[in-house]
């Protein structure tokens, strides 16, 4: 039986040094195997009483027990490590997806190695090879195209390439376009400007194709609409700011803007305000993604929400299932998630046509 001093330690005060699994088992009067099953959340632990599990976790906290990750890996001949490849890490799309990945992997006891390629083709090609050399068990690619069949399971978030061995998690872009454009039409907008994504973004062309298809069905004339494309790989709102300045310089009247993402929408709003165009009184603005900053911008941004955290979690969950199933297991090729329209203060009813034309004639 454990001593009173040991009981006090396990109940609250942490011991000075971490203990081994064997020492912890001896303190509890249980076998190391039992502790291993519980602490690793093994399916075989289902037969162990909950009271015993609670005692084990309490003692592990009290004695500052830390599992030996290396020993676990050597015993199982596995690394319990995944590779995660992103374009960049900033307050935006990739960071929110990564949050979902990280939360799920922590829950499941996995480690991950993160690399950002900054849209450089040589790094996109090289980093997966480095991951595999470091014995990762699979790869999550975020907004990063996979062109070749990988040697290990891969889940691609916003991937659109049909590659053997890759599961693509994609948004229903046609539904997203319909939500945004139908809402603007209901507000009376017919003259709509568009900011397209950069060429390197995985979603640029599938999203634009969806916008064109939906616009045709709603009677919106894309051919006569003011359209610009984002340039540069900066994650800053500056790229949207520059794009909006180009829209204004075209001199074509528009009452609403559908931007490629929230970051560019925020930059565009700044450009409009500097040019004397009020948002939403003169120009309504819709973004895309629903990043954290969207709700706190002034005005708060109307946007198409992608379930980014859920997409990251789904990627991690899917990859671990594929790893558990082995190389011959059947895997999903495509998993589709649904968008949502989030209405805030950056959109309103379209202004009168005479006011729009007067503004356009004045220019920026």
Structure in words:
With 364 residues, this protein is an alpha/beta fold. It folds into three domains: 64 residues, Orthogonal Bundle (434 Repressor (Amino-terminal Domain)); 127 residues, Response regulator (Rossmann fold); 155 residues, 3-Layer(aba) Sandwich (Rossmann fold). The protein is 43% helix and 15% strand. It is built from 13 helices and twelve strands. The strands form two sheets. The protein has a six-stranded parallel sheet with strand order 2-1-3-4-5-11, sandwiched between helices. Strands 7-6-8-9-10-12 form a six-stranded mixed sheet, with helices on both faces. Strand 8, helix 11 and strand 9 form a beta-alpha-beta unit. Helix 8 crosses helix 9. The chain is elongated, with a radius of gyration of 26 Å. It starts with a helix and ends with a helix.
CATH class category name of the largest domain: Alpha Beta
**Helix/strand/pairing class, anyone?**
alpha/beta
**Whole-number total of structural domains:** 3
Give the CATH topology of the largest domain.
Rossmann fold
Low-confidence stretches: 1-15
CATH superfamily placement of the largest domain: Response regulator
Shape type: elongated
Short note summarizing the structure:
The protein is an alpha/beta fold.
How does the SSE layout of this entry go?
Elements: H1 4-11, H2 21-28, H3 32-39, H4 50-62, H5 69-76, E1 81-86, H6 93-108, E2 111-116, H7 121-133, E3 139-142, E4 154-157, E5 166-171, H8 173-186, E6 192-196, H9 204-218, E7 227-229, H10 238-250, E8 256-258, H11 262-274, E9 284-289, E10 302-305, H12 308-325, E11 334-337, E12 340-342, H13 353-362
Parallel strand pairs: 1-2, 1-3, 3-4, 4-5, 5-11, 6-7, 6-8, 8-9, 9-10
Antiparallel strand pairs: 10-12
């Amino acid at each position: 039986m454990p001593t009173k001093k040991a009981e006090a330690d396990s109940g609250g005060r942490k011991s000075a040094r971490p203990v081994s699994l064997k020492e912890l088992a001896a303190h509890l009067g249980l076998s190391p195997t039992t502790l291993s099953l519980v602490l690793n959340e093994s399916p075989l632990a289902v037969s162990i009483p909950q009271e015993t599990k609670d005692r084990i976790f309490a003692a592990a906290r009290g004695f500052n027990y830390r599992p030996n990750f290396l020993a676990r890996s050597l015993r199982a001949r596995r690394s319990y490590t995944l590779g995660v490849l992103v374009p960049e890490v900033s307050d935006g799309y990739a960071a929110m997806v990564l949050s979902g990945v990280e939360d799920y992997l922590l829950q499941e006891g996995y480690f991950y190695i993160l690399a950002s390629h900054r849209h450089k083709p040589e790094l996109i090609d090289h980093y997966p090879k480095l991951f595999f050399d470091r014995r990762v068990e699979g790869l999550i690619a975020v907004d990063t195209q996979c062109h070749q069949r990988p040697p290990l399971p891969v889940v691609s978030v916003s991937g659109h390439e049909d590659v053997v061995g890759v599961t693509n998690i994609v948004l229903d872009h046609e539904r997203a376009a319909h939500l945004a454009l139908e809402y603007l039409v209901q507000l009376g907008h017919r003259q709509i400007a568009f900011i397209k994504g950069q060429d390197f973004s995985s979603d640029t062309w599938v999203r634009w194709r969806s916008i064109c298809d939906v616009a045709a069905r709603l009677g919106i004339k894309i051919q006569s609409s003011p359209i610009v494309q984002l340039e540069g790989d900066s994650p800053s709102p500056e790229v949207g700011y520059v794009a909006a300045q180009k829209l204004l310089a075209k001199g074509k009247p528009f009452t609403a803007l559908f931007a490629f993402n929230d970051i560019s929408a925020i930059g565009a709003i700044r450009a409009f305000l500097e040019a004397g165009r009020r948002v939403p009184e003169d120009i309504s603005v819709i973004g895309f993604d629903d990043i954290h900053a969207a709700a706190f911008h002034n005005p708060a941004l109307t946007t198409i929400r992608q379930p980014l955290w859920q997409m990251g979690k789904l990627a991690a969950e899917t990859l671990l299932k594929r790893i558990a199933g082995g190389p011959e297991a059947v895997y999903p090729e495509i998993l589709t998630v649904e968008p949502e329209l989030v209405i805030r203060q950056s959109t309103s009813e379209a202004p009168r046509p005479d006011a729009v034309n007067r503004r356009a004639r004045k220019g920026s």
